[in-house]
Amino acid sequence: MRSFFSLWKRELSALFLSPIAYVMLMFFLLVTGCGFYWLVKENLEVMRSVQGLMMVIWACMLIVLPVLTMRTFAEERRSGTFETLMTAPIHNSTVVLAKFAGVWTFFILMCAPTLLYLKIIQILSPESVSLMDTGPIVEGYLTVGLIAAAFLAMGMLASALTSNQIIAAISTFSIMSILFFGGLFEPQLSNNPMVREVGGYLSPALHLMEAARGVFDSRPVVFYVSLTLFFLFATVKVVENRH
Amino acid sequence: MIKVKNLTKQFSGHTAVDDISFEVKRGEVVGFLGPNGAGKTTTLRMLTGFLHPSRGAVEIAGCDIFENPIEARRHIGYMPENCPLYTEMRVDEYLEFRAQIKGVPRKAIHRRRDTVKEQCGLTLVGRRIIGQLSRGYRQRVGLADSLIHDPDLLILDEPTAGLDPGQIREVRELIHRLAERHTLLLSTHILPEVERTCPRILILNEGRIVASDSPESLQKRLEGDILISAEIPGDPAAVKAALKSIPAVDVVVHKPLEEGWNRYRIDASSPEARTQIFDCAVSNGWKLRELHLESRSLEDVFMAIIRDSATPRSK
Predict the structure, then answer these.
(1) CB B130 within 8 A of CB B94
(2) What domains sit in chain B, N to C, each tagged with a CATH number?
């Protein structure tokens, strides 16, 4: 347990010491900031703005998550520190979980400033405060956290499979893009009932919309938690298998 | 301390390590030699559990490294080739981090950190960022890391690679001091280093162990052709003729030195030829200012063993 916390702390501090993390922070705040400005200008109703904000965050994740995870294992492999790390008396699963916890914490810290936007809505139109419900907001952010966990775990698997960070980032980005740009983005737009049915289960965008509307659905929770566990398990297996 | 049984490692198509077995006892200091590509690093990686073997078993301090890796690794201080480090960390920070993940008790961490810094000469650079240190200092940080959990066994893969002669000497002295307290397995290219530090040598070639002995007895292997060096003034032809009349002397080669002196390199069948050479000099009234047995360098031994063990399949 102690080695878990040491590794987690190192992973997090390594992120804060790398320029790429600051570029990502800036990118994220810039895009969500612009998105928020647009939402305020359009003067949408409160529910729509929370939904809009969630969509903007999901769009940012497309870039942010692959970049955050690409270095986790690929960098260690390239520099050789993978060898010092894996010959220390620690379990492979501890290493994987600590790295996962590190990038996840970083992403959550990255999202935290967007809560201020909601505060700004409060200041701009005090009358909408009564309309603002904490339920959808909390649920929206929880869903963001779950989606991030699943794709961070996927990104780590990609990073564990290669010693090239670019390959790791692009493969994660590609898979996320299928969900983002593919028909699954707005499955309800399709006429094909099959796409609507399956897409409804798989589309992070749809899950976020529902969550930000205040609808609690356990299916996406189960979906993302099991996806996270599966990718973490696969990463442990890849790390173990050094033939 | 280390028990290796029939260890084999095959990478797609070729055999890097071919059915090797050896033992290292507690307190022993063993030099691991071999040309590049002989399988040294692969073997060490299997000993530390980093690579899985195709066949065979490794036991470290009674624990099987593949069945009980955590327990076995607690006994090992390993410094990989090229000494990889987290270059963005400070020396103190890095050593504390490594102590934590290696399970050093919380209370002992600062004490252990200071001890290994003292041992490795790092006391003045604790606050420096590793990436800004010279190669020699990084190597010491790597050594300090391998010592931090006070392991019984140290496995060092080319600890002096890429250092300048001054740094090599420093690291060698450090290793020499460590050899007093630890079981040590040291892979290197630098033969004088091994000769001075290691009472036992393992030579690996083409994935197989071709020699396992002390440097002295390895040198004795080349015996039979004893080489004696003598410095005598005067006419070389006469001296050569007189020397060749000694029964134990086979071949004499001479090299002119300053002011009429000549150095003779004499191949003899026994080291006792030296007394006969001395008697010969006395009876001929020669001056003799030097007479000694030339020891074969470990390098000669190494080259001979590698040459003899090379199989036709090698290029």
Answers:
(1) yes
(2) 2-220 (3.40.50.300), 223-294 (3.30.2130.10)
